[in-house]
Amino acid sequence: MRETETTTLEINGRTREIAAPPNQTLLETLREHGYFEVKSGCEKGDCGACAVLVDGEAVDSCLTLTGTLEGRAITTVAGLKRGEELHPLQAAFVKFGSIQCGYCTPGLIMAAQSLLNETPEPSDEDIRLALSGNLCRCTGYTKVFDAVQEAARVLREEESAS
Amino acid sequence: MFAEFDLVMPSGLDEALDILAEAGGDGGLDVLPLAGGTNLVVDLRARRVSADKLVGLGRIAALRGIERSNGRVAIGAGTTLSDILRDPGMAEAAPSLVESARVFAGQMVRNTATVAGNVCCGSPAADTVPPLLSLDAELTLTGRDGSRVVPLADFFLGYQKDQRRPDELVTKIAWDAPKPNSANLFYKLARRKGDAITVVGIAVTVAAEAGKCTTARIALGAVAPVVKRAREAEAMLEGEALTPELIEVAARQAVEESSPIDDVRASADYRRHSVHALTRRLLTQAWDPATVGG
Ligand SMILES: Cc1cc2nc3c(=O)[nH]c(=O)nc-3n(C[C@H](O)[C@H](O)[C@H](O)COP(=O)(O)OP(=O)(O)OC[C@H]3O[C@@H](n4cnc5c(N)ncnc54)[C@H](O)[C@@H]3O)c2cc1C
Ligand code: FES
Ligand code: FES
Prior knowledge:
The complex is a heterodimer of chains A (162) and B (294). Chain A is of the alpha+beta class and 162 residues long. Chain A contains five helices and five strands; from the N terminus they run E-E-H-E-E-E-H-H-H-H. Chain A has two domains: 73 residues, Ubiquitin-like (UB roll) (Roll), CATH 3.10.20; 82 residues, DNA polymerase, domain 1 (Orthogonal Bundle), CATH 1.10.150.120. Helix content of chain A is 35%, strand content 15%. In chain B, the strands form four sheets. Chain B has a five-stranded antiparallel β-sheet. Chain B has a four-stranded antiparallel β-sheet with strand order 11-12-13-14. The N and C termini of chain B lie far apart (61 Å). Chain B folds into three domains: 51 residues, Uridine Diphospho-n-acetylenolpyruvylglucosamine Reductase, domain 2, CATH 3.30.43; 116 residues, Uridine Diphospho-n-acetylenolpyruvylglucosamine Reductase, domain 3, CATH 3.30.465; 110 residues, Enolase-like, domain 1. Chain B contains 13 helices and 14 strands. Chain B is of the alpha+beta class and 294 residues long. Helices cover 34% and strands 26% of the residues of chain B. The interface between A and B is medium-sized, with 36 and 34 residues. Flavin-adenine dinucleotide sits at the interface of chains B and A. The site of one FE2/S2 (inorganic) cluster has 10 residues of chain A, from loops.
């Protein structure tokens, strides 16, 4: 094995020094350190189960080498939670039954969050393009769309109230 | 499992070029540039590609950014597909490229995949290449000894073969924004809109003056060993008014200039049929008086 390198990452708000070999992906690093909410599906960019935010933008962690991320901020689905309360996306996924087996859910929620960071009022076409890299074998996607639209509405209301 | 390699993340372009230059030569190390990694990491994992060392380009500020001046557009090698979609001026500066970015992969891949990486991967199905060819884009190749500018139309030499030396990086991709009275369109035929490999991808540019076509570009993706222009079909259109009859003849000529194969996604016959239908449709849409003037 090649020598490990240390990379400083901020993971869900906590700064961590991570030692990883140069060929380790962010997916492997995160699961190695116990962030099991990040799921491994295809490990080649096709399914989106491994999606996390890097500086607010969703990426497939299976395609991202940890050593390229010095100083960057990583958010997993667990990092969205607001203390004891669910984030509006998480709450909406529960409310609409957009979670069945749940394997795709962390990735879908991160892809949706990345969309809503840029597009607070998405059309269904916007959602379709933003989520086209996430596969779900259970829900048929319509409930996912409902949840994203609902969460977008809640987030807009929070924004205008603040 | 995963192939082994070293990874360096230089913050300066010169440093990156030095590493690439020192690697070359006999018995040298195999060093590859790493951009978004959406091709390279997948290929390394599948062991289709091996490398001793990767030079990550992600921290090099000089490769970032989109510039526009006097109708010329230049994107740095770090420009991602999402950067293309976010740039407010791009819809005018490169309509076909924006369309290709919309239907490119899924969001997570678009957020990291670069346009330069798409060009360098050399795939005949690379979606940004027909648009860039239709815009007469030029690549800047930079090595330790300096830079050279190569028209994209001359860059590809054969299947996965191109003019870039291993010690060079693509640092910039530039083109002239389309003139008024012109249309620049792209259509990707695939199983679905998102996250699907292209069966046939076609980009066209048509510029007109006084009812005659002054410039025609037809770029064909996924129907030959490299993405290529249908130059004879283009020549038939220039200097003429694009009547439905002429468009039909040119679309048939474009088929003659393609050489598709059968594969898991489509038969060669279906691809030829699609080159004909899509070229005809795109030229018809481009020759709209509202766009090219009537
Ligand atoms: C799930 C998935 C879906 C995809 N969908 C599409 C699609 O719809 N359309 C499509 O066209 N492609 C698609 N791809 C392929 C890939 O995403 C693109 O080709 C992408 O643009 C590659 O860019 P990158 O920055 O990730 O390049 P990398 O993977 O980092 O590099 C690709 C190659 O180019 C070289 N390279 C990169 N940058 C430079 C440079 N500046 N100078 C010299 N050499 C360089 C690398 O050494 C490597 O050989 C998909 C891939 C995945 C995993
Ligand atoms: S595990 Fe990363 S995209 Fe499937
Ligand atoms: S809920 Fe099972 S894969 Fe989406």
